[in-house]
Amino acid sequence: MPLLSNDHYRVGRSKTGLGLFALKPIKKGAKIIRYFGPLLDAHNKKHDGIENKYLFELNKRWTIDGSVRKNIARYINHACKPNAESDVNPRKKRVIIRAIKNIEPGEEINYDYGTDYFKAYLKPIGCKCASCEKKRQKKAAEAKAEKAKLKLKAERKAQAEADKAARKAAKTAGKEKPSKPEKVAKSKAPKAVKGKTTATTKGTAKAAKTKVVTAKAAKTKAAKPAKTTSSRKTSAGKSKAA
Q: 108-111 and 77-78: which strand pairing?
């Protein structure tokens, strides 16, 4: 199967910079474009210093340097779920990009760069292919939903605690009786404590006792009749008569 003509694709702006996009429908299995450039020999010490993002390793010895401008295939970006693949032929030292799905006009052409390239260049900055973007968006949406869920849970808990505190306060207020005005305490004489008598108590008791004694004395004096000499006079009179 021959390669597709140049009018089947174009270089255009992509999320990761530049990319290769289909201009016409591309059927599954079609050979889209060849990845080419100078061959680098691992046995040649002069080639050891060449380093760029467009090196395509054929085997342990041979590598294609795809950084040349004529190599339009270098604009094809990586995808974790691609619509094309790299068909490598180490014996012929050729790489053909072949469609593994039907590709519609306007759709970006991509293939999997492989584990080594992914770890060296894509993993440190994060893969920006459509599949990974969807995963990130999904995770972000899930994280946002979880955050909102926790926030709502915290708000409900706070509201429940506030309601509980309000009910407790209302219950406590219902049990409390309105305070009555305090009565003025009547003054009473201090009571003597058994076995102990204060100076004031002793003085008060002594004064009361003195008043009682004085009252008794006054009563006794009033009860005794005044002394008279009538008996003597009577006796004298009797004597005289006798």
A: parallel
